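Late entry, evening session. Most of the bench is empty. Finally got around to the prediction I had been postponing all week. Sequence below, unchanged from the version circulated by S.P.
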Amino acid sequence: MAVYLTKDSKVLVQGMTGGEGMKHTRRMIAAGTDVVGGVNPRKAGRTVDFDDRSVPVFGSVADGIRSTGADATVVFVPPAFAKSAVTEAADAGIGLAVVITEGIPVHDSVAFTTYARARGTRLIGPNCPGLISPGQSNAGIIPADIAKPGRVGLVSKSGTLTYQLMYELRDVGFSTCVGIGGDPVVGTSHIDCLAAFEDDPDTDLVVLIGEIGGDAEERAAAYVRDHVTKPVVGYIAGFTAPEGRTMGHAGAIVSGSSGTAQAKKEALEAAGVRVGSTPTGTAQLVLDLLGNRT
């Protein structure tokens, strides 16, 4: 099994004919993703060749679903068009929407995450690297060659740290790695992923990566304490961040003691999560726990 994305997922790419969409669609197909179509109203009816595969372009998500049975979409459209792209996908009944686009206005993110949730669409992002179930499917921009299939689940705010922990644990392997994005408003939370991994019989341990700002990690800690039976290992980025400074992600703002790395670390540890001081140290904690379970 895997979380949210499997070898059976049929993926559309909104914005496939643009530069980024073309590049990453080729990489997704190479990783085994069943990309069944692109969406561009101005280029409907055309096909795009990716090495040995021709992918049709549809005029709408609804057309793509009717023709291919697609159940997922990856959004590579400019920020100004992201809201309409997600709304269109949700209206068409897509099950999973992965929004890679960064720089989306917060009021647009609030609107389309709420809209998608009301219509039963699982939304990952925005401003995220997507998700990958190694050996099965890859929806987004995560490099497919840095990890193999395994029994560790990973949920992360940070794209870069997603890649690093995948590489650090490349010999262990992952069920699914989910980059949820670091914006103030995202469609899928740490808690959503913790619940999914808890229910996944092929995930034995979960790695949770957070960062300064907000209270998502503190809420995740409370959820782990009350609902998660599997081992959880955590890492919090931003211990050296100065107070009141944004640190890359729009959501990473510290005010007083609220949102600090130390506060998050303490909350996670109080819930039984082992928290690493570096990415490499975090990976070692995972190896130690897996060794203890064998």
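Two things to note before I forget:
The longest helix spans residues 279-293.
The first strand starts at residue 10 and ends at 14.
Will write this up properly tomorrow.
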